[in-house]
Automatic annotation (TrEMBL):
Coiled coil: none annotated. Its EC number is 5.1.3.15. Belongs to the glucose-6-phosphate 1-epimerase family. This is Putative glucose-6-phosphate 1-epimerase. It comes from Gemmatimonas groenlandica. One of its GO terms (cellular component) is cytoplasm. It is an enzyme of class 5 (isomerase). It catalyses: alpha-D-glucose 6-phosphate = beta-D-glucose 6-phosphate. Signal peptide: none annotated. GO terms for molecular function: carbohydrate binding; glucose-6-phosphate 1-epimerase activity. InterPro entries: Aldose_1/G6P_1-epimerase, G6P_1-epimerase, Gal_mutarotase_sf_dom, GH-type_carb-bd. It comes from the Bacteria. PANTHER family: APOSPORY-ASSOCIATED PROTEIN C-RELATED, GLUCOSE-6-PHOSPHATE 1-EPIMERASE. GO terms for biological process: carbohydrate metabolic process.
Amino acid sequence: MSGAHEAPSVEVNAPDGAFARVYLDGAHVTSWIPARSQVDRLFVSSEAQYGPGCSIRGGIPVCFPQFGAFGPIGHHGFARLSRWAVVTQEEINGGARVVLRLTDTEASRAVWPFAFRADLSVHVAAAVLTVQLTVTNTDAQPLSFTAALHPYFAVEDALATTVGGLRGCRYRDALRDGAEFDEAGDVLPIEGHIDRVYFATPDVIEMREPNRTLRIEKRGFPETVVWNPGAEGTRTRSDFADGEELHMVCVEAAAVRPPVLLASGEHWVGTQLMTAVR
Ligand SMILES: O=P(O)(O)OC[C@H]1O[C@@H](O)[C@H](O)[C@@H](O)[C@@H]1O
């Protein structure tokens, strides 16, 4: 574990001023500042740890080859704990992009016995951050996985924040023993600790605060996860500071049910696009 300044990271600087920072450990985006803005739309804890083998608390963890407990290996998989390599850095599509890559190693095969290639592309332009995960089965046998992009969005007051667009979707509530319900509300208020996987969600939803809105889009990911640790959750985690639950909301794009199944040589693409509407 180390401090933010010692761990290697790359900057993504678009000609219009849009900015992102990505750490090589975990291919972890920790900062996103849209063009013509001074405000970072991602939350990172003041207690976050950096470096090989520790997941940064905040930003956008990449959960692969497993999301949560949806699969046979450890919670949220090993991608967020692994060193990725920078493949390309370029100006493209009016913005800037970096692509990082993770491939199997002896250590990964000991946990998950497959050859694979995972590419994470991070593109910024204007008011949009686009994060795309491409997984290729480079093994001779089929493989299956679950995955998520797990952004911690910075909010001024989580308790004044709502997520709109999930009405009618079935969800699994981890706070009620994994029981399933149908979302009845037009908007979902964040009222404290929440931990839900919404299934078959619309590809465009909105996170609204009193003074600003984020449009959160996904492609290839069927599910949306909404998570806030609540006061108890930040108090009991050493990489969170007390009270930080009020300044973050996770709205994640996930692929969990069913797991993604790839034949030898096939690939899968999942994308999350975040737009600062205001
Ligand atoms: O503390 P971690 O491993 O980063 O996980 C954070 C949270 O991630 C969310 O996606 C899960 O739904 C929660 O159950 C989990 O607590």
